[in-house]
Design goal:
With 238 residues, the chain is of the alpha/beta class. The chain contains seven helices and 14 strands.
């Protein structure tokens, strides 16, 4: 079975998935692959790797949350992307300074509560461009890049930092660039971090302590996507 775009989600709230993904008219022409996590609560990274290891997909793979809702034709939007890069809708990059570094948010996404309340728009400095990492609500990669480099998610990262690690690992391994691009979409989430976030952050900080460069989401504060524009961060010693 082949499809131009594969939409992969780990699902616990089936009503939310139905509303945002399964019945979304903007996903016409896309193959939707849900993994049921309502009974066997496996980590997101394990579920995503299971799909990659099956190796049946050819085309663009969109790993997205059950509450991520695209608001324009997705197949058409990703057809213009470079298959040699990783993509998302919002991400961060680090601009290094002498005394302080600048955490630069790029891209944009609408955000609201699970019930659709408290809507707001998270908008970065630039609508598109290169970033260090993208947020886990949506990560897009082409199957040809996955196959050529053997890309996988780190299964020690159960529910946090797995997307950021995927981007960093690809750059560390093969200089694969990550970018954000304009895509109308809505994330039905309050943007809160889980209890497992800080242990996951410590893991990736240790993992990339001697990396090629310093990565924004790894050295920055934990509320990376909590607002607009740029924020200063203190130097972090390796």
């Amino acid at each position: 079975m082949t499809a131009p775009v594969w939409v992969i989600s780990v699902v616990r709230d089936w009503e939310m998935y139905k509303r945002c993904v399964a019945d979304n008219p903007f996903l016409q022409g896309c193959a939707r692959v849900p993994y049921d996590n309502s009974r066997e609560n496996l980590s997101v990274s394990v579920r995503y790797n299971r799909f990659l290891q099956e190796g049946a997909a050819e085309g663009w793979i969109v790993f997205c949350h059950e509450d991520w809702e695209v608001l324009e034709p997705l197949a058409e939007a990703v057809s213009r992307l470079d298959p040699e890069k990783i993509y998302g809708v919002i991400g961060v990059s680090l601009e290094e300074g002498r005394w302080r570094d600048l955490l630069v948010i790029k891209g944009a996404v609408q955000q609201c509560g699970k019930d659709g309340g408290d809507p707001k728009e998270i908008r970065g400095r630039d609508a598109s461009g290169r970033v260090d990492t993208v947020d886990c609500q949506c990560l897009i990669v082409h199957s040809s890049l996955v196959a050529r480099l053997g890309l996988r998610f780190d299964e020690r990262l159960a529910f946090d930092m797995y997307a950021e690690d995927f981007c960093v690992a690809a750059f560390e391994q093969a200089d694969v660039v990550t970018e954000v691009f304009p895509l109308a979409c809505r994330h039905h989430s309050g943007g809160h971090t889980s209890r497992g976030f800080r242990p996951a952050l410590r893991l990736v900080r240790a993992k990339y302590r001697t990396a090629k460069k310093r990565y924004a989401s790894i050295v920055g504060h934990h509320s990376t996507f909590g607002g607009r524009g740029c924020k200063p961060v203190r130097k972090w010693r390796r």
